[in-house]
Amino acid sequence: MKMKPIAKVYTALLMLFLFAPIAILIVFSFNSAKSLSVFSGFSLHWYQELLRDSETLDAVRNTLVLAVSASVISTLMGTAAAVGIYRLRSRYLRAALDTVTNIPMINPDIITGISLMLMFVFVGRFFGAATSLNFGTMLISHITFCLPYVILQVLPKLQQMDHALPEAAMDLGCTPLKAFFKVEVPEIMPGIVTGLIMAFTLSLDDFVISYFTSGNGFQTLPIRIYNMTKKTVTPKMYALATLIFFVILAMLLITNLMDANTATDVQDAKRRRNTGTQ
Amino acid sequence: MKKKLLALLAAAAMLLSLAVLTGCGSSNETLTLNVYNWGEYISDGSEGSLDTVKAFEEYYQKEFGKKVRVNYTTYASNEDMYAKLSSGAVSYDVIIPSDYMIARMRDENMLLPLNFDNIPNYQYINESFRNLYYDPDNQYTVPYTYGIVGVIYNAAAVDEADVGDWDLMWNSKYAGQILQFNNSRDAFGTAMYKLDLDVNTTDHAVWDQALAELQTQKPLVQSYVMDEIYNMMESGEAAVGAYYAGDYFTMLDAEADGVDLCFYYPERTNYYVDAMCIPNCCQQKDLAECFINFMLSAEPAIANAEYTYYASPNSLVYEDAGYQEDLGEETMAILYPGIENFSELYNTYAYQNLDNETLSYITTLWETLKIG
Questions:
Q1: Chain A residue at shortest CA distance from B16
Q2: Is residue B25 over pLDDT 50?
Q3: Are residues B289 and B266 in the same domain?
Q4: Is a pLDDT exceeding 50 seen at residue B359?
Q5: Range of the domain at B175
Q6: Which of A87, A197, B91, B229: CA 20 to 30 A from B196?
Q7: Is A75 touching B (CB cutoff 8 A)?
């Protein structure tokens, strides 16, 4: 398909607005001086500085630990919840549960953050703890706001699935559990993987909720960068952002390639089934 | 393959929860010290400097034979810190707020009196930094840094003849190149120092007078900024702005070609002191005092002063030949201009905590200025 000139210009402008900030950031992460306005020469100085900054590296580690655990736990819980909601007989109950799980997603972050903090403080005081905010509370908060996104990804896959498939499996001698893992899980796997990735990225860049629920000694990267504003944000952070950008880019490319492969696999299988050459 | 993936996920989740559990279990053997400080406000090992937190952990191990882990976290403003502490959800052992916030926290009984027997290095703090208004009996605080607001200008764009006092920030020759503080207290401060008014007055008429002065300045102002000032001054985008002396050197480090940043103190200006305190949620008071004492000893104190570029009230720092040499004569002269009568100037010109009624009146005026 050929693009009209106006469409070309539009696309180019769109790309420019989307990627110019990142491009500038990447260019200045290689600047040998501290300035954001003048590029004085190529150097890896800020990358070396980054590796020496233990506070930032701690924050990166904290962020990753939190994002991995929150996304894995919320994916497991969210998948289980989606299966549960899918199996509900009552349509009204199903709609009600659907709405309830969507509330944390629609709620502004700041309200979620403050209410979670209040609850943790309340419970902490109730049990007489000196500090009620720690890694655990942050993990609970992150799971809370990731859960609805996982459910939202998995539930439609369950609905798209052929109802007869698990029944057929059980007819052929599978136990319900075996039918679930052998038939249903592979069917909804794309939803689970998307949910996992979404939960991971959401947890990775959350600032507002983390800000309210972080306690002593556990600081994530977004909070650390925000707190740098007493002085300026140092170019070390450009270096870090560049690295994160390329890691995410690589992850995206890999998942997209995998997706493309499975998509053609599925198409092949369907074609074979239709033509009856199976 | 997909089953394997799921099994892998489940295994990872279990491992992680195990790690979290064991992480909680082992904390009994090592002491934990929670330090809450401004971001970028301690020497952290970058550019070959001293990693203060690690140095303290090593020092404590050597001196007392016990392991200590410093949980070092940061905040972006006094108000952020205050909100976190007063929520009652956290416990910190050492905090480093600014003067007016110390006064407020002291009034609200949020600070614990220090045991100075544990802080022998307090003797090195210059006399001028004792008995200041926020802690008149020296019970709660140990000063960490202090600073003075001055005017920064780009000598390549500003005529040397126009330089002097606050008038430069009201000079119509530089319309569109002037930066003003984007926070009410500091912005009103510049106008009040210019007119020789009392910055701690509760008289509404005086604040109105300051507002009128800011309104005459408004057409000349390029924008109201806080930390954006760094990039705007460094790049030459703006030519005049007021900020702290220590921050001027940070800008000087990064100034672009063709920009020649200079600095001077107006006759009347703002002074601030940030001091180390122990909040009442502290769990390890002796350890906290040990940390404060360590921060006052020569090596970390000098490293911190060189890292932050703020002036230090510690004689081990400003009398140190190596430190003076590292900074150079010019920098020393700007950072330490007449340390002798500091307490007098400070108690006259520094911002003090105002009552709520006056504060909300200032907020109203500030909105009038920004919107009107």
A1: A69
A2: no
A3: no
A4: yes
A5: 147-271+350-371
A6: B229
A7: yes
